[in-house]
Amino acid sequence: MLSLSPEERERGVIAASAGNHAQGVAFHAARLGIPATIVMPERSPLIKVANTRRYGATVVLHGGSYDEAMEEALRRQGESGATLIHPFDDPEVIAGQGTIGLELLEQCPEMDVLVCSVGGGG
After folding, report:
1. Where are the domains of the chain?
2. How many angstroms separate the CA atoms of 40 and 4, rounded?
3. What CATH number has the domain spanning 6-87?
4. Which of 35, 37, 99, 106 has CA 20 to 30 A from 53's CA?
């Protein structure tokens, strides 16, 4: 979200997620003063829905799956002009997730190998 232009920040962000990405987007959007809408599947864990709302996002419960929630997020994005923050298929998100390796090397320079999974939370 730090890479968004002032105009994009004003239009807000939108995402689809069943929980972890939703909470991250909501938290950081609030920190940056960016309006956030998160479309979550209707069966998302209640604690994740509550936390996403608590972090300041507008939560829309839609559909029975992530794919249905994403379809709704894309529809709403088309109407509002908000910037989609995709949970894994976005160069900025990938770069941000990749910084964990740099942070670990900074904290543990003696480390020889780091094995981790890469991809969306789902």
Report:
1. 6-87
2. 23
3. 3.40.50.1100
4. 99
